[in-house]
Each structure stands twice: as C-alpha cells, then as structure tokens.
Prior knowledge:
The chain has helices at 60-75, 83-89, 97-115, 119-123, 142-155, 170-179, 198-202, 222-230, 244-253, 263-266, 269-281, 295-304, 354-359, and strands at 5-21, 24-38, 41-47, 129-131, 134-136, 159-163, 184-188, 212-213, 235-237, 258-261, 286-288, 328-329, 339-341, 351-352, 361-368. The chain is of the alpha/beta class. The protein has a 7-stranded parallel β-sheet. A 4-stranded antiparallel β-sheet has the order 3-2-1-15, with helices on both faces. Strands 4-13 form a two-stranded antiparallel sheet. Bound molecules: 2-succinylbenzoate and magnesium ion. 2-succinylbenzoate (OSB) is lined by residues 55, 135, 188, 190, 238, 289-292, 315, 317.
Amino acid sequence: MLIEEISLFHNKMELLTPFETSIGIEFFEEHIIVKIDGEGLTGWGECVVEPTPSYSSETIKTAWHILSDFLIPSILNKNISNIDEYLKITSWIRGHRMAKAGVEAALWDLFAKAKGISLSDLLGGTQKEIMVGVSVGIKPDIKTLLDEIAGFINEGYRRIKLKIAPGRDIQFIKAVRKEFPDILFQVDANSSYELKQLDLLRQMDIYNLLLIEQPLGYEDIYEHSKLQRELKTPICLDESIRSLGDAKAALELGSCKNINIKPGRVGGYTESILIHDYCAAQNIPVWHGGMDESAIGRAGNIALASLPNFKLPADLSASNRYYKEDIAEPLFKLNKNGTINVPTGAGIGVEVDIKRLNKVTVFKKEFKA
Ligand code: OSB
Ligand code: MG
C-alpha cells in the first residue's frame, strides 16, 4: 500500500457534562485525529493525547512533534504492506506510545478496508456485541451522584465505574452500594493514594467491588503487589501498564488480578493484542479502557474489545454519554442488555462526517510526498 497523504486534525469537542477525576476536571476533550490516504482508500485513527501531561506524559504538542517530525516522514510515500512493517520502520522511536498508536490505528483501518473486511475480523475478534459500562466522575454530593447513576442504569448500563480520590471515597462508595446493591460496581483512583493509606484502602473491601483501578503510583508495580496481598478486592492496573513487559511484571509480582487495556497507553493495537493474549494464557481477564474518544477512536476500540479475553465490561459507552455531536456515523447506541454492537462494515465500520470534523478542528496539517 503506497502511503500517499497523511493529515492531522487537532480537534476539540465539548463534553456533554464536565468529567472530574482525581487528576482534575475536563470540559472539553482534545485529541489528534490521524487520516492516512493510499491507493484510493482512507484510514482513520485517533491519538488520545490530552493538552496536559496529567494522565500520560504525552501531550497534544509532544505527539504533534513526534508525528510530524518522525512517524509521518518514516512512512509517507513508502510502500507499507502490513502493520509489522510499520512497527519495524518506527521501532527506533522510543516511548511516545499515544502518538504511535494513532498512526497504527489509521493503518489498521486502511488495511482492513483494503481487504474489504471489518477491523474486528482483521484483529481476530470473536464477539458480535461487547458488554460496556460507564465511567462516572467525582460529584459534588451524594444525591447528585446517585441521580446520575440511576439515569445510567435506566439507560441500560450494567456496570458503573466511579472515580474516587482521598476524601471523596468511602462515603460515596457506601451510598452507591446501598442504593444499587446488585450492580457491577468498580472504582478508579487514578493514582491518588499511597501505600501508607492502607487502612483506608482496606475499608473498600466490604463493598463487593468488581475491582479497584490504579490506586497507587502511576508507574508503580512493586507497591501494588504489596497492596494486592492486603486486599480481597482485585486491583486492576491502568496507568502502570505501558507494555507487555509491564503486564508480565505485574502478573508475576501479583500486583493486580486483571488489566485494563487502552491501545493509546500501550502503543497500539498490536501491543494490546500481545497483552490480551498473554493474559488469556494466564487466565487473567482484561477489559477495554477509554479516553473519552470520539466515534473514530471508539469504533476501532470496540473492534479490539471484541477479542475473546475482553471479559469485563468496557469503558466504551454509547456516543450520547460523551458528546452532543460526534464526528462519525452511525453513532454507537446502547442495547437493552448493556452491550454495544461491534461494527461489521469494512475497517472501523463508521463514516467520518468531514463537515463536523472540520467544525471541531482547531488546527490541521496535511503532509504530502
Ligand atoms: O483513568 O480510565 C481512566 C478518561 C481519561 C483519562 C483516564 C481515564 C478516563 C476514563 C474515561 O475513565 C473512560 C471513558 O472513556 O469512558
Ligand atoms: Mg483508569
């Protein structure tokens, strides 16, 4: 496949409701959309970097730099026949996983379209619909939180994930569990606790949580192994798992009992599949995380989440959870049983709405040979 043109779109989309986590509060999502044209076909990917280095060390600007100055020049006007070739050409570039994953995603879409098959089929997906949940931000008070969760449960969501932080934890967890005794319920700390708060973390053990996501340091694996030994509730690592190597270390050390896979965080769909397969062989379930993607990134991620060992509900909610207007059609809808259908059309299986994409684009650059 001759790579003839690549375009980057820095987009900014307003969230329907502000999203607060232990990291901060977001009103908008800003990502970079990657478009790759070759031989009459177009592939789309989403680079899930954010404006600030608060979740990941990458930012819109670092990714733009790595994309423009290194990744794009390595493949533009070249014949790339498969993903492994792309990975080989770019393997000298260390880190910058979100930047790499954005290009890889667009190439996967392009190659699936060239074969005329869905991305799910190309990646080895087996599930036709995936179980999804919803990630709920920190709320100012318990009533607001319970009302919001009741709304999501009414819509059909079967799993709730609540963002927590020190001081915004036990009383909220307790109230949710009391109001919704049977719901699948998990929490995400985004690295806001320390091991010395063990007594506090132990209090979470009595609420029948599905898991506690990333309680300790964002690069830590060792202290999580100490914590996991003290808790009944499974720990799930998000931020700390950036590669298959990290996943191996975490599982060998007993730092977690399941793993959240975000392709952006681990450098792309290929690394995601390696982690997925390794965990499957160890009988460790994985689940798909989210970065508040637009329908472009969401479509590809839903395809990935159709692989067989994605066994816990994903942070891939319906389009109307995030945006008033999304940038691709059809929108993702929640089925009554709490699932979302895996697209069956060629590639990511959604059509990008160029007019809407342009409307939310703050800066665009085209790279031609
Ligand atoms: O920690 O899982 C996280 C969003 C941005 C950054 C980090 C996280 C999240 C979410 C959102 O929880 C999940 C979603 O996309 O629905
Ligand atoms: Mg998380």
